[in-house]
Amino acid sequence: MSMRKPYPSDLTDEPWELVEPVITAWKARHPSVSGHQGKYAMREIVNAIPCQNRTECQWEFLPHDMPPPGAVKYYFLSLA
Question: DSSP readout, 28-61?
């Protein structure tokens, strides 16, 4: 978990334990062509999605302590 202050939309440990295996399996089935393993923690990516959804902010206006909007939007569109 990051050192940032949590947002109300962040997943608690219990839901994350349900989501993590799905994310891990998806990443295993969709390896990066370049071999890149990902720079950002998947939990932070997942936490950013409901933050954007609940606040209805544009991707570019995600809070500065979240992963970059491009990374979050990539996983949002890929996992949908």
Answer: HHS--TT----SS-HHHHHHHHHHHHHHT--GGG
- 4-60 pLDDT, tens digit per residue, is 899 898 999 999 999 999 999 988 888 877 767 778 899 999 999 888 877 778 888
**3: its two tokens:** 């050192």
Beta carbons within 8 Å of 43's beta carbon, 6+ residues apart: 1, 11, 16, 20
Distance, in Å, from the CA atom of 45 to the CA atom of 7, rounded to the nearest integer, reads 13
Handedness of CA 60, 66, 70, 74 (dihedral sign): negative
Asked if 16 and 38 count as a contact pair (C-beta separation under 8 A), the reply is: no
Using CB atoms within 10 Å of the CB of residue 72, give its burial: 0 to 12 exposed, 13 to 18 middle, 19+ buried: buried
Length of the chain as a residue count: 80
